[in-house]
Amino acid sequence: MTAFSDPAVRLYRMEEARRQIQKQLEMIDRQITRHMTAMISQLKPKRTVFRRGDGLDPGGFLERYRSHLAAITAERQPEIDALSRKLARQDRAIEAMRARCSPPHDHAA
User: Could you report the per-residue pLDDT of 42-85, keeping only the tens digit for each?
Assistant: First the structure.
């Protein structure tokens, strides 16, 4: 029996491949977060003159932040979707492999 045909080795490799895909998804999330963090100073309103009674619009900043976040996320969405589908396939394959490799349970005892 070769090492690759050993079910435990195959399961380990499948789990490792799944961890790599999960790391890629987390990396994309961190990149988006970093990009938005760097962009916060640009989203703040620029005020050259203070007018009495003219308060800042807190909703405006949030609206700009959300629209930029949506745009950045939309750019990466095809990649995120592909990795998410791949992750789901790997989860199903790992569960199937575990079901085949696990010894049958004796429920009569």
Answer: 877 766 555 665 556 667 888 888 999 999 999 999 999 999 99
Q: What torsion do the CA atoms of 71, 73, 74, 80 make, to the nearest 10 degrees?
A: 170
Answer yes or no: pTM beyond 0.85.
no
What residues contact 76, with CB distance under 8 A and at least 6 apart?
Answer: 28, 31, 32
Interatomic CA distance for residues 28 and 21, integer angstroms = 11
H-only helix segments in the chain: 7-43, 58-101
Burial tier of 4 (Cβ tally within 10 Å: 0-12, 13-18, 19+): exposed
Going from the C-alpha of 54 to that of each of 40, 51, 57, 88, 94, the distances in angstroms are: 22, 5, 9, 51, 59
